[in-house]
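A further point concerns the way the authors explain their paired sequence and structure data. The central task, working out the structure tokens from the amino acid sequence alone, is never made concrete. I therefore recommend that a typical entry be quoted early in the introduction. An entry of this sort, consisting of the sequence and the corresponding backbone structure tokens, reads as follows:
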Amino acid sequence: MAPASLKRKQASSDSTAGGSSASGAGGGGNNAGGSSAAGTGSGGGVGGGVGDADSLDGRLLFAIPKKGRLYEKCLSILAGADIQFRRHARLDVCLVLNHPIALVFLPASDIPSFVGKGNVDLGITGHDVILESQMLKHVTEELRLGFGKCALQVQVPEAGSIKTVEDLVGKRVVTSFEVLSGEYFGKLDDIFQLSGERRTKIDYVGGSVEAACALGLADGIESGDTMRAAGLHAIGTVLETEAVLIRSRIPKHQAHASLIDLITNRIKGVVAASKYAICQYNVARNRLPSAIAITPGRRAPTISPLEADGWVAVSSMVEKKKVAQIMDDLVATGAEDILIFNLDNCRV
């Protein structure tokens, strides 16, 4: 019987694409060794690599995915939060220049354990990786970051007889997410009152999960072009996931609490800035109610009188994904001189 598989499908949105892989939200890609990021750190010394553990004393430890698309996105987040550093080739720990922080570059799949056990204070990884590593009770998800979005899906051969996830109950499923898939199909097994050898069999495959179907190793898998090329299609979604900022529930130093809050708030500002823009326009005062119904802002729009009688200028925060429609609607109400300004950072 042809097998089924469980694998992640990357979100198609270009503003949130964080890559998908069998190892979690931080998989794929290569890290460019010796590249500088998020600041102007000088080579060597404090700005360079860490030569001994003593140099980490008193520093907040912040875990970052060491490679892949999450790594690239994290560099942008760190730059926006004004965390300045220079990472030297082959070094997975470096000191931040303008804060008592050390960045620790780890595989995304290892970060939940390091944070959950209190080895590091903060980290960025995928929500799915936290669940798969069974560390959700040991970390606090401070913030969803809006990138690295993907779905963990159940996928089977298009030409096969399996059409629903219920058809897979009691069969074989290959996956890189044993815990999540085990929980998912375990609930289905319970519904169908299956026990012992009759329960769904979950087999681990580290990569190329789609090949298991073609080789007859499982009954159902993959995503995007790879999925289509392998003749597979999705019949169910186990989990929607994205990158998250997490902190340890076992703080190493209480003195770090204020610094953690500072970094968290800065990153919140960077994330909010990626979602919003400023819309400014002029409109006749008698048409103002219709205009501000389109651009109500987060709290309220800023309205200023113009030198021209009966006209006002309006400034309001709007969602970036709605900008085109908002501009069309404003034109229809009689608004003029409509401008959109992107935000680099904010506090909202």
Observations:
- The chain is about 25% helix and 30% strand.
- Residues 12-48, 221-225 have pLDDT under 50 and may be disordered.
